[in-house]
Specification:
By secondary structure, the protein is α/β, with parallel strands linked by helices. It contains 20 helices and ten strands.
Length: about 450
């Protein structure tokens, strides 16, 4: 009898354990369905919102057709999302289910970005790494409106952004309409950029579309960082209504040699003063809806040559860079700059040779990305400058910059050559698709940053 009771108890325990495991499996299956459905809802919500503002029509179209063409497509997309979210074939052990945590809003947004990138064709991925002038894709001499030519050009080359100069700006109404139409014609969200530092480099202000806030040297001479914040705030105040979302400013270089090339575009020779000014102007831009771009890393203030026309070399030592220039860029990074522009200056003390810094993995990846911890978008200086074009073809330079760790290529000398070169490098494995995707993730975290509150509201 005692043996029978023991056997019965053991059977009851086994049955109870089996029931618990079955319940755990059911809970896990319900959790998976819920996470998958949430991801689909978040994707639909974000991309529907982007469609309304005309920013990501192609992503919506691609995802929409992917989901509705066939039941097989829907299952495939769902499977991709499950893979993206880290789903496994093996169920989580019952004892681990209680320790699982929900993804953060930022993680959810990253999941949506990954889903968007996954359905992009290779041609669009590569084009998305370039910021170019409107003339370089339309073939006109001076773009002052966005019509069918712009629409066709953006359909052929889904570039990541466009940069505008004084020649493109005739009036507030004309420029606003051109930028608005350009955004509507693009299949993906665009960076619409301009050089608006204040002083001698103020494209919109020079065209009469804003008040020139004065040069960095003038602002720095007053010694009050609040003035630098006000400058950034004022610039954002007239750029954003025009339709711009990126300002290639502030200048984070320090003028530390006599006859420094950077001149009055720098806040001065004192790195502590420059750091406070750069951080404040960065905040003035970023807090008012314009992405700031620190330039020109690792610092060109120690050179007297002009990279626009020739090789420029700085004799600054690695110790000097770390003690002075890097502290200024670090301050801007800490202040929230979305971009850092890398210069074509040669810094042998850092690279060991005369390779332009924009093409050096030591400067871009080892120092800027790893040592300074910058996780935003790294963009080259304009690639049509003499410091690059005298030594490299447009495709060669673009590939080198991407392999060095840059995320975006600014204004190559020959856009089509550069684009086709990078596309071929992707196809033959010279540059991996995952390397391209890494840059696109950083790019789209900025482009979709304003969608993060929508993801939070959707909880």
């Amino acid at each position: 009898m005692a043996e029978n009771k023991d056997i019965n108890r053991e059977q009851e325990k086994q049955e109870k354990r089996q029931q618990e495991q079955e319940e755990a499996i059911k809970r896990e299956e319900r959790r998976r369905r819920r996470v998958r459905n949430q991801a689909l809802v978040y994707a639909g919500t974000v991309f529907a919102a982007l469609l309304v503002i005309g920013g990501a029509a192609a992503v919506v179209t691609a995802l929409g057709s992917h989901l509705r063409n066939t039941k097989q497509d829907e299952a495939a997309f769902t499977g991709n999302l499950e893979s993206m979210l880290g789903e496994e074939e093996t169920l989580v052990k019952p004892e681990e289910t209680d320790t699982m945590t929900e993804p953060t809003p930022q993680q959810r947004l990253d999941e949506i970005i990954d889903a968007a990138i996954e359905v992009m064709p290779p041609e669009d991925k590569v084009a998305g790494l370039f910021i170019v002038t409107p003339e370089s894709i339309t073939g006109v001499s001076a773009a002052i409106k966005a019509g069918d030519g712009t629409k066709d050009a953006l359909n052929t080359y889904a570039v990541g952004g466009l940069i505008y100069f004084k020649q493109n700006m005739k009036s507030q109404e004309q420029l606003t309409e051109m930028l608005s139409n350009t955004s509507l014609y693009s299949r993906y969200p665009l960076f619409l950029a301009v050089d608006e530092e204040g002083g001698s480099v103020s494209r919109a202000a020079e065209a009469g579309l804003g008040e020139n806030v004065g040069s960095a040297r003038e602002i720095g001479a007053a010694g009050d960082a609040a003035n630098a914040y006000a400058a950034g705030q004022n610039i954002a105040g007239y750029l954003k209504p025009l339709g711009f979302n990126v300002d290639l400013a502030p200048v984070a270089d320090i003028s530390n040699v006599e006859d420094s090339f950077i001149g009055d575009r720098s806040y001065g020779s004192d790195s502590a003063l420059a750091a406070s000014m750069v951080a404040s102007m960065t905040k003035g831009l970023e807090e008012n809806g314009i992405s700031a771009c620190l330039k020109h890393f690792p610092g060109i203030g120690g050179s007297v040559e002009d990279t626009h026309v020739e090789m420029a070399v700085t004799e600054r030592t690695a110790e000097q860079f770390r003690a002075e220039e890097f502290t200024v860029f670090a301050a801007g990074i800490e202040a929230g700059a979305d971009f850092v522009m890398v210069s074509h200056v040669s810094a042998p003390a850092l690279t060991g040779d005369n390779t332009p810094c924009s093409l050096s993995s030591v400067v871009v990846s080892d120092i800027l990305r790893e040592e300074l911890g910058f996780d935003g978008v790294i963009i080259t200086d304009a690639m049509n400058m003499g410091a690059v074009t005298e030594y490299y073809q447009a495709d060669e330079a673009a590939i080198m910059a991407l392999k060095a760790g840059c995320d975006m290529i600014l204004m190559p000398e020959d856009f089509e050559l550069a684009y086709n070169g990078v596309l071929q490098a992707l196809k033959d494995g010279t540059i991996s698709e995952e390397r391209i995707n890494d840059s696109l993730r950083r790019i789209y975290r900025i482009k979709y940053a304003d969608k993060l509150p929508e993801v939070v509201d959707g909880e």
